TrEMBL record:
<dbReference type="GO" id="GO:1990060">
    <property type="term" value="C:maltose transport complex"/>
</dbReference>
<feature type="transmembrane region" description="Helical">
    <location>
        <begin position="242"/>
        <end position="263"/>
    </location>
</feature>
<protein>
    <recommendedName>
        <fullName>Maltose/maltodextrin transport system permease protein</fullName>
    </recommendedName>
</protein>
<comment type="similarity">
    <text>Belongs to the binding-protein-dependent transport system permease family. MalFG subfamily.</text>
</comment>
<feature type="transmembrane region" description="Helical">
    <location>
        <begin position="341"/>
        <end position="360"/>
    </location>
</feature>
<dbReference type="GO" id="GO:0042956">
    <property type="term" value="P:maltodextrin transmembrane transport"/>
</dbReference>
<keyword id="KW-0472">Membrane</keyword>
<feature type="transmembrane region" description="Helical">
    <location>
        <begin position="404"/>
        <end position="424"/>
    </location>
</feature>
<comment type="function">
    <text>Part of the ABC transporter complex MalEFGK involved in maltose/maltodextrin import. Probably responsible for the translocation of the substrate across the membrane.</text>
</comment>
<dbReference type="Pfam" id="PF00528">
    <property type="entry name" value="BPD_transp_1"/>
</dbReference>
<keyword id="KW-1133">Transmembrane helix</keyword>
<dbReference type="InterPro" id="IPR035277">
    <property type="entry name" value="MalF_N"/>
</dbReference>
<feature type="transmembrane region" description="Helical">
    <location>
        <begin position="44"/>
        <end position="69"/>
    </location>
</feature>
<dbReference type="InterPro" id="IPR000515">
    <property type="entry name" value="MetI-like"/>
</dbReference>
<feature type="transmembrane region" description="Helical">
    <location>
        <begin position="21"/>
        <end position="38"/>
    </location>
</feature>
<feature type="transmembrane region" description="Helical">
    <location>
        <begin position="146"/>
        <end position="166"/>
    </location>
</feature>
<dbReference type="InterPro" id="IPR035906">
    <property type="entry name" value="MetI-like_sf"/>
</dbReference>
Amino acid sequence: MEHPVNKKNEKKPRLKQHNPRIAMILSILFAGLGQLYNRRYLKGSIFIIIQLSFLITSLDSINFGLWGLRTLGTIPGTDHSIRLLVLGVLSLIVTVIAITLYIFNVIDARKQAIKIQQGWKPLKFKETAREVYNYAFPYLMTLPGLLLMIFVVIFPLLFSILLAFTNYDLYNSPPRNLVDWVGLDNFKSLVTVPIWQNTFFSVFSWTVVWTVVATTLQISVGFFLAVLVNDTRVKFKRLIRTILILPWAVPSFVTILIFAAMFNDDFGTINRDLIIPLIGGEGIAWLSDPLYARIAIILIQTWLGFPFIFALITGILQSISSDWYEAADMDGASRFQKFRNITFPHVMFATAPLLIMQYASNFNNFNIIYLFNEGGPPVRGQNAGGTDILISWVYKLTFDTNNYAMAAVISIIMGLIVSGFAFYQFRKTRAFKEEGEI
C-alpha cells in the first residue's frame, strides 16, 4: 500500500515556459511590464503609473533643472544662477530616486520570474496584502522620514557642496551677474593666496587648540568634582550638587553676555575689582588682545560645560558597585589604584560617546565666540578675528562679506574633520560595539 505523499515534500512543478529574461527585458523597456508578465498585476500597475506620472509631469522640469545645473545660466540679468542651481540639485535628487525605482523594478521582475519558473504561484490579493503588511510595514513607516531627510538634510548638503565649486561672491551675484563653475580654484586659493592662507591656518590651528583645551578642561573639572563630591567623607552632597549644577540652569547666552561685561577692558569688574587692585596698571586687555581673549573664552566655556559633565558622571558613579571597592580595599589598593582600575574605566565605558560629542560640539561652538566679542579682536593681514573659529569665520564670510563660495569650502573642510574624527572614535569606542563583539 502506497503511503500518502506529504505535501510539504512535494516538488513544485517547474514552469520552463516562463522566462526570467523576458520579464527583465520587458521591465527595462517600460517599468511594470515585467510584473504584468509575472501576473503581478497590482505591482505592475503601480510601476506603470509611477513611470507615466514621471514622464508626463517631471521630465521637462528635470531636463531644465539638469541644464541649469550644468550651465548655471547663459543670459546675465535673465537667468538666476542660484535658482538654477537649486532646481538642478532637486532635479538630480528626483532623477536618482527615479533611477533607483527603475532598477528595483527590473530586479524585482527577474526575481519573481525565477520564483515562478521554479513553481511558485502568485498570491491572491488578500494574501499579498497580508504579506506586505508583515514584511514591508517598517519600510512603509520609515518612507516619509526618509523623504523628509532627503529634502531637509541631503538637499542643503548637496547645495552647499556644489556652491564650493562656483565663484559665488559679492562680485558675482545674480541676477545682474552669472555664477560660473570654477572647479577646485577656491580650494587652491585657500592654501595659496596669502590672505586666505594666513587666515585659514591661523583660524584652523586656533580651532583645534580651542576644541582640545576647552573641552578637556571642562571634562576634567566636571570629572574631578563628581569624584570629589561622591566621596563617602563628604557631607551635604545634595546641597553641593545643587550648587554645582546651577551654572547649567542659567541659559548659556545670558551667562556669556554677563561674562562679556565682566571681562570688559574699561569697566569690567574683573579688571576694576580684581586685577587693578592686585597688580595695578590699567588691567588686562581681555577683549582687545587675542591671547587674553582666547584665555577668557576658554575659562567661560569651562564654566558653561562642567555642570553637564558633573551631572553625567555623578549618575555613573552611583551605578558602580561598592563591592568592587571593598574587594580592592581587601587587596590593599590605594585610592589612586581604585580610581585608575575601577572608577575611570567604568565611567569612560559608559560616557565615552557623549564625551566625544563634547569635542565635536565645541569644534562648532558658535555661540560663545560670537556673543563674547564677535570673534574679535581684529588681526592684521587676516579677514578673521583673533578668537574666530572656523564656524564663526564661515558666518562672517556669509553675512558680512557675502563670500558664499569660500564659506562653502570651509564648511566642507569642517564637515570632513568632524565626521572623520567622530567616525574613528566611535569605531574605537567599546560602548558602540555589539555585545558579542566586546
